Amino acid sequence: MEWKRLIQYALLGSNDLEQYAILLIRVSLGLFFAISGGNKLFGGGKKTIYETLVKAKIPFPHQMAYFVSGVEFVGGSLLTVGLLSSPACVALLIDMVVAIITTMLSTIPKGLSPLNWLDDFLYLPEVLYVLFFIWLICSGPGKFSVDYWVACKLLR
After folding, report:
1. Cα 73 to Cα 33, 40, 138, distances in angstroms
2. Which of 14, 105, 136, 153 has its CB surrounded by the most CB atoms within 10 Å?
3. Contacts of 82 (CB under 8 A, 6+ apart)
4. Tens place of pLDDT for every residue, the chain, 156 residues?
């Protein structure tokens, strides 16, 4: 009888472990963006983000450097604790889509076959972040989040 549960686990995964996977992805992504945005806002990353925006011909690069850094810092911080997780994911998803369109697509070599271009495109970390944000928006922040606690209190 145990072999059936093993096969079921191998084929379908485990709902019991899903909340831990959501927690791991949400906190890891949140910390990454909070730290990255914080370094750009408060550390030595201001110049780099500014130069990247100028090179990409983004209007108002000085203001946009602060805006993008702020979105990453605030959005990442909110995502880490699971507060307003879906809006934070939407903001960070937009941030990553803009980064892909304005800077990352130009890093893919010209003249590749469609399959090789897709391979290089999917290799971009920003694409993976976008996929994770879509997943978190659809799955929710999980049971180990402030959002879950607030929702439970409001629905009583």
Report:
1. 6, 9, 22
2. 136
3. 26, 141, 142, 144, 145, 146, 147, 148
4. 688 888 888 888 878 889 999 999 999 999 999 999 999 999 887 888 888 899 888 999 999 999 999 999 999 999 999 999 999 999 999 999 999 999 999 999 999 999 999 999 999 999 999 999 999 999 999 999 999 999 999 988
pTM: 0.88
| Cα Rg of the chain, angstroms | 19
Assess contact for 80 and 34: CB atoms under 8 A: yes
Cα 24 to chain centroid, rounded? 13
The residues near 37 (Cβ < 8 Å, ≥ 6 apart) are: 68, 69, 70, 71, 72, 73, 74, 75, 76
Say which residue the tokens 């983004």 belong to.
58
Look-up of token digits 């949140």: 30
User: Which amino acid, one-letter code, is at 50?
Assistant: Y
Tokens of 94: 């937009």
**Residue 108, token pair as written in the block:** 């893919």
List, in sequence order, the alpha helices (H) in 13-143: 15-42, 46-55, 61-81, 85-99, 114-123, 125-139
E strands, the chain, are none
CA 99/CA 74 separation, integer angstroms: 18
